[in-house]
Amino acid sequence: MVKVTYRSISQISGPLLFVEKVGNAAYNEMVEITLPDGETRQGQVLDTSKDMAVVQVFGPTSGMDIKNTSVRFLGSTARIGVSEDMLGRIFNGLGQPIDGGPEIVSKDRVEIVGDAINPYSREEPSEFIETGISTIDGMNTLVRGQKLPIFSGSGLPHNVLASQIARQAKVKGSDEGFAVVFGAMGITSEEANYFINEFRNTGAISRAIMFLNLSSDPSMERIILPRVALTTAEYLAYEKEMHVLVILTDMTNYCEALREISSAREEVPGRRGFPGYMYTDLSTIYERAGKIRGKNGSITQIPILTMPGDDITNPIPDLTGYITEGQIVLSRDLQRKGIYPPVDVLPSLSRLMNQGIGKGRTREDHRGVADQLYSAYANGKDLRSLSAIVGVEALGENDRKYLEFADMFETRYVNQGLYEDRSIEETLDLGWELLSSLPESEMKRVKKEFIQKYGRWKRE
């Protein structure tokens, strides 16, 4: 195929080049842009029409001019070389090493624009992933092949939680390979150094692949990064039969980059200025998680997003909630109390929890304990609001016990150390210990046989 070079740029708008008189340009085709001083940059075809191609530049458009900048269409889509040698390495958003190590030599170069898993080929998730965090393992269980986002807010410790999950996550009762693919979009240099140091100092880097895009890097890299990360994860999962946990932070920065490009293309905006196709675009990322029949490997996703203005109805968390299987919600109120991780279990949800818990997976009493804890905590929070109006003295003895339970639940069950890795047995036993502060007659969501077996109430 002849690679033609064009000098017919009609307009430069933000990260976009509008190239005229282009024949047969393909959607997502890679291009090479040569600046007047000889410097080259990469780009990708974003849109094509009759005799016109819109090219998004992977990098700044400074130094380009319409007359002297040339564009060469390469005739292939974006690809990345993948290999097991990537484990323990750090890359930028385009998959290029930034840790001072050698380039990855690979026989396999695969397209980064992957496909969602065919629903017919999907296998139902069922294996429990232990994160060592009680609010997730006990109340909102993560299952292998699930996509479970974390809804956070600006200033909340979602990055600290992400590094803890990456460090501690493991498939319960499995000796198979487990890897973490960590992708960060639009983060500060301080955050990047935190992640690098945390992964290296704890040894988690040995089973992890990191892709980092800084806030000072081109926003176009943020569009590419999750696809590069997921393509790498698919190689490890389906070619090397590993269990892969993909953590993507911060999806809000990804969506902001999408809005920036949409605005540069002068598209009609949707809700809050985001493009109308954002739902479809997000689904091409989230739906690449799962298990495939006949393959031992799997991809589990934990996307993290900061809700603008702590608004859960914002299009980003709203659309994410539609596509994914639940959410972990971080609470600013819990953080103010000095509780880490500040996970609010009441609005949090794992829709696949029942598939991954119970006898043979976690423990037979898991479902009942989670329901009873949820019920008791919800009751305690309601009474906390009531006591603020009428005073604690106006509450009955039983109500005061629920009020005390809510405080104990937050300080002992929700709150745990940054390096505290609780087993599921420890989490469930702690749940029983807290429930024992309530009357046994209030245990209406747990089977009597489990109360007899695991309960902490004194019997005469």
UniProtKB/TrEMBL annotation:
One GO MF term: proton-transporting ATP synthase activity, rotational mechanism
Source species, domain of life: Archaea
Matches recorded under Gene3D superfamilies: 3.40.50.12240
GO cellular component: plasma membrane
Main location: membrane
SUPFAM superfamilies xrefs: C-terminal domain of alpha and beta subunits of F1 ATP synthase, P-loop containing nucleoside triphosphate hydrolases
Membrane topology type: Peripheral membrane protein
Family: Belongs to the ATPase alpha/beta chains family.
Protein name: A-type ATP synthase subunit B
Lineage of producing organism: Archaea, Methanobacteriati, Thermoplasmatota, Thermoplasmata, Thermoplasmatales
Gene coding for it: atpB
